[in-house]
Design goal:
Layout: E1 3-17, H1 47-52, E2 55-63, E3 94-97, E4 101-109, E5 118-119, E6 152-158, E7 165-170, H2 176-180, E8 185-190, E9 200-209, E10 228-233, E11 237-242, E12 250-268, E13 273-275, E14 278-291, E15 300-301, E16 309-312, E17 323-327, E18 331-338, E19 346-350, E20 355-357, E21 360-362, E22 364-367, E23 372-378, E24 418-430, H3 434-438, E25 442-454, H4 455-460, E26 488-491, E27 501-504, E28 510-513, E29 524-529, E30 534-535, E31 539-540, E32 549-552, E33 558-561, E34 573-578, E35 586-591, E36 601-605, E37 611-615, E38 623-625, E39 630-632, E40 647-649, E41 655-657, E42 669-677, E43 680-688, E44 698-704, E45 711-717, E46 733-739, E47 747-749, E48 761-764, E49 770-773, E50 790-794, E51 799-803, E52 814-818, E53 824-828, E54 836-840, E55 858-859, E56 864-868, E57 875-881, E58 885-887, E59 895-899, E60 901-905, E61 908-912, E62 923-931, E63 940-944
Parallel strand pairs: 1-4, 3-8, 9-18, 12-14, 17-25, 44-59, 55-63
Antiparallel strand pairs: 1-2, 4-6, 5-7, 7-8, 9-16, 10-14, 11-12, 11-15, 12-13, 18-23, 19-22, 19-24, 20-21, 24-25, 26-54, 27-28, 27-58, 28-29, 29-30, 29-31, 32-33, 33-34, 34-35, 36-37, 37-38, 38-39, 40-41, 41-42, 42-43, 44-45, 45-46, 46-47, 48-49, 49-50, 50-51, 52-53, 53-54, 56-61, 57-59, 57-62, ...
């Protein structure tokens, strides 16, 4: 006859339960995420997120008496140091049974909605199935499949050998999924009497918790492949959203004045993502999501509504989820349940452990909704034994010094002394669907091990011993970027305009504009604020400046010449004047027009402040602007089939042509223009490059005035998308060096870049290295070959170092601007014309930045001036960088000028301004000081004249 056992379960609410802060009584413990996932980089979870994950949960709580007065307080996993108190845990209980038992499970519903009790795998009649609407009812109407609030039902189950194993139980009443997603579930484990006893039993539930309060601002529902969803955003603000099916997919909509009225976001697979994941629109604008993948997705507001949680035993993120502490070698019996009843499967993966199946040993098993299984594993050692002491590596710095001689030299009765160490190894267990793990569905097995090591063994180890932490609840103290310089790209809000032209103004703002109204966007410019990364209100543009040239005048205003569109070359010239009272405003004003129409022209500032205009729509003439009028330069005609030709003023006074351009040029000769009078000059071929095609490459100038005569280097990077393979090499770079003059200089090939690039951007940084970004690897303007990796060139070592990759590819219409905070703004470029991102170089993470506490706003050629800095003794270089004025990644004015340090005091540096305007054409420059670690200060603007 079956042994009868009564079990008492009460359906109760857990008020204001958060899976990242489950125990309201445990005030000393902060909500944690020891994996430091997105938004939790400091290993804590912000209060706003705790609140958004909060819900009124439901549990089956077990009691020891029929009156439901004595709750069972045994922990679910005795070795779990993170498990909340019995009255704040999910699930509320796990039941255990043996073959030969008949269970009477008395369920009292203390909620205010009907619920039931349904268990898998065991024997029962329809009175104990609990499945709406197929239950039985009593005379007074109470039902087995919908226990009314305040009522109870007795469910009867028979247990025998055929029911051995773990079986989930859960509500199966009217709103099944809603109740289960609030925690109303548990597990019944039928133990096998023939199995050996283990050290730890660990019931593990993979599930999700879904707050039922709060309505999202928008929710697409399930979008099948090809489906679309649109939402109109009426109010300004920032709106975060995600995919409910793939919670790791996240995006942002920014609603601000001046944004576009409509944006489209593609939903893509492999990996699952929103593209772009950050868009800006105007109030009243509409965002449309279009599922271009092969999986179902959603676009659901997460900023104003509750936030779903992927959880293990009611908790999300390591530090809150189970941490099972045991000595290495102990046996764990896992009872694994999937109570996520949605469309997504999970799996269960153990690190450092495995278990046997009929097919052999495995460490991962998939598990569908409401499936469960049992496995046995062994807690792995924190450290393999004997210790791995033969790795042939450098000894660790904090190891004790080894004895003066080895054990082989010791008398036999003097054996090496051993020291005991208490070790700790944290081994993950988690769902191996990556986004589920990163959303918090992960826990730890903490292996404790005692070892003995001699001083010699300790010294030979290739790593620091993983010693046991005193405070087991704390997250490990780690550096997110432990492999040297920490650099990275960060997306800004999208610009309200598409970006083709960029210029760093001397008031700190970056002027961005494009023109080309045929794209349906207004003719307007914007100013970018590097500090808060916002865009100004619209600045009207009087004409279409698409593909114009531009360069700075000596007074800091920006001269814009030519442009428009093919076949509509324009001879106009305009000047942008920043508003002296409002850095977020300015105006474009007409100035004297050129005699020739120019489209894709290059402007070059001269030593006397005048500006030369070259090329543009194939124009062979050269004109000069004196601030009011243009005049032709006689004798200076030269065929420029290459548009935006690379031109640079040298300290010798010559204007050097590097052959970079927007069309291929014949031959390999570079050339220079000599001005023989104010409006006359002639060309001379000079210097043969190795590769004849530098089309869509980039050139720049670096000048060192700390030596006499000054050292000048002109660099060329990439280009050459067309022609035979033997005559082009978009991987290559070349340099020509001048010492005081042109005599004896010749082009020399440098080390190749790591990636072939045309449409390449190159920017000299304050530390004297050159950042190379973007472009495409095959052909010209090829969206299928965008280059995401970036790299930096060290001219002193002729060496390339890979740096952080871009988030989106940029080419052709791109602009890359060095800002006063020593970061880069990279924007535009097909197909990302309206997006922008900011690069933080690794040098900003090498320690504290030096500070320019005072510097003169003006400096005179050849005269000394003083820079006040409390880090004077640490400074190794003082540099001037011409503010960038760039379009189509080309900037003829870009130059780096290194100044001498003449003397110093503990709080100041004395230096000299450049000797004349051929070194530094008159105008504003970014002044940086750089310490011995290569860390630059923030820049101050100084006007050189």
């Amino acid at each position: 006859m079956a042994a009868v056992r009564h079990v008492y379960l009460k359906i109760e609410k857990l008020r204001e339960y958060s899976p990242v802060a489950p125990d309201a009584h445990d005030h000393h413990r902060e909500p944690r995420d020891c994996m430091r996932n997105h938004g939790h980089e400091d290993a804590t979870i912000p209060p706003s997120e705790v609140l958004r994950r909060t819900l009124d949960a439901l549990v089956y709580r077990e009691y020891l008496d029929k009156d439901f007065t004595l709750p069972k307080t045994d922990p679910l996993i005795a070795a779990d140091i993170n498990e909340p108190s019995f009255d704040r845990r999910i699930p509320g209980t796990v039941l255990y049974a043996h073959p030969g038992e008949r269970l009477y499970v008395h369920v009292l519903n203390a909620d205010d909605e009907p619920h039931s009790f349904h268990v898998h795998g065991v024997h029962y009649g329809i009175d104990s199935d609990g499945s709406w609407p197929f239950g039985v009812h009593q005379d007074d109407g109470n039902r087995s499949d919908a226990i009314c609030p305040g009522r109870r039902w007795c469910y009867v189950f028979d247990i025998d050998e055929t029911t051995i194993g773990p079986w989930p139980f859960h509500d199966h009443s009217i709103h099944l999924a809603e109740a289960v997603n609030r925690g109303l579930f548990g597990g019944l484990v039928v133990r096998d009497p023939h199995c050996d006893k283990v050290d730890i039993e660990a019931p593990v539930f993979l599930h999700r918790l879904v707050p039922s309060v709060g309505r999202p601002l928008f929710d697409s529902g399930t979008l099948a492949p090809g489906g679309t969803f649109s939402h109109l955003f009426a109010d300004q603000g920032t709106y975060e959203y995600f995919c409910k099916i793939h919670p790791g997919m996240r995006g942002t909509v920014r609603v601000t004045a001046g944004g576009a009225m409509a944006r489209t976001v593609s939903i893509l697979d492999a990996p699952s993502r929103f593209d772009p994941d950050d868009v800006t629109i105007a109030p009243g604008g509409t965002v449309t999501w279009q599922n271009g993948g092969i999986q179902d997705h959603t676009a659901s507001d997460s900023s104003s509504a509750a936030l779903e949680s992927l959880v293990i035993n009611g908790r999300s993120f390591i530090g809150n989820t189970p941490t099972i502490v045991a000595k290495s070698g102990k046996r764990i019996r896992w009872h694994v349940f999937n109570l996520d009843l949605g469309m997504m499967w999970h799996n269960f993966h153990l690190h450092g452990q495995r278990w046997k199946t009929a097919d052999g040993s495995v460490d991962t098993k998939s598990i569908g909704p409401a499936e469960s299984f049992t496995l046995d594993s062994v807690v792995p050692p924190a450290l393999l034994w004997p210790p791995p002491c033969e790795c042939d590596c450098e000894p660790q710095a904090d190891h004790d010094e080894p004895p003066a001689h080895g054990a082989a030299d010791e008398p036999r009765h003097h054996r090496p002394k051993k020291r005991k160490f208490q070790l700790q190894g944290d081994f993950l267990f988690h769902c191996h669907v990556e986004m589920h793990m990163m959303e918090g569905m992960a826990g730890l097995v903490r292996s404790l091990q005692e070892v003995e090591l001699t001083e010699q063994e300790l010294h030979k180890l290739c790593f620091h011993l993983p010693k046991q932490r005193v405070h087991l609840h704390e997250c490990p103290d780690v550096d997110h970027h432990s492999c040297g310089d920490r650099d990275g790209w960060e997306r800004t809000p999208d610009a309200p305009i598409f970006i083709v032209h960029g210029a760093q103004l001397h008031n700190g703002r970056v002027l961005l504009f494009s023109g080309h109204a045929e794209r349906g966007l207004p003719l307007e410019a914007r100013l970018f604020n590097p500090v808060n990364r916002t865009f100004s209100a619209a600045i009207a543009m009087p004409e279409d400046f698409f593909c114009a040239g531009h360069t700075f005048l000596a007074d800091g205003r920006l001269l814009v010449i030519g442009g428009d569109a093919p076949g509509h070359s324009n001879s106009r010239a305009y000047v942008f004047t920043p508003d002296p009272m409002n850095p977020d405003a300015g105006t474009f004003g007409a100035t004297g027009g050129m005699s020739q129409g120019r489209w894709y022209p290059t402007g070059v500032r001269l030593a006397d402040g005048r500006v030369l205009a070259f090329s543009g729509d194939g124009n062979s003439s050269v004109e000069v602007f004196d601030g009011a009028n243009w005049q032709m330069v006689t004798g200076a005609a030269r065929s420029f089939t290459g548009l935006y030709p690379g031109m640079h003023l040298l300290p010798s006074g010559h204007v050097f042509h590097t052959r970079t351009s927007w069309n291929p040029l014949p031959g390999t000769n570079t050339a220079h223009l000599t001005l023989t009078g104010p409006t006359s000059g002639n060309w001379t071929d000079f210097g043969t490059q190795q590769f004849p095609n530098r089309q869509e490459g980039m050139s720049l100038v670096m000048i060192d005035t700390t030596v006499t005569p000054e050292r000048t280097r002109v660099f060329v990077f990439g280009g050459g998308p067309s022609g035979m393979a033997t005559t082009r090499n978009p991987l290559s770079a070349e340099m020509i060096e001048f010492s005081g003059g042109l005599g004896g200089a010749a082009w020399q090939r440098l080390a190749d870049m790591n990636n072939p690039r045309s449409n390449v951007a190159a920017v000299v940084m304050p530390d004297g290295k050159i950042m190379i970004v973007g472009g495409c690897s095959i052909g010209s303007r090829n969206p299928g070959s965008v280059v995401l990796p970036t790299e930096i060139y060290d001219p002193e070592l002729d060496q390339w170092t890979p740096t952080a990759p871009l988030s989106v590819g940029r080419q052709y219409h791109s602009v890359c601007v060095l800002m006063p905070d020593a970061r880069l703004l990279y924007a535009g470029g097909e197909p990302q014309l309206m997006s922008a991102e900011v690069y933080t170089p690794g040098y900003l993470n090498r320690g504290a930045r030096p500070v320019i506490s005072a510097a003169p706003p003006n400096a005179v050629y050849g005269a000394g001036f003083t820079i006040q800095t409390p880090q004077s003794n640490e400074i190794e270089s003082v540099v001037l960088l011409a503010p960038i004025s760039v379009t189509h990644h080309t900037d003829a004015g870009q130059r780096y000028i290194k100044l001498p340090i003449v003397s110093r005091t503990p709080t100041s540096l004395d230096t000299h301004a450049p000797a004349h305007g051929n070194i530094a054409p008159p105008g504003f420059y970014l002044l940086f000081i750089v310490n011995g670690a290569g860390v630059p200060s923030d820049a101050q603007f100084v006007r050189i004249a």
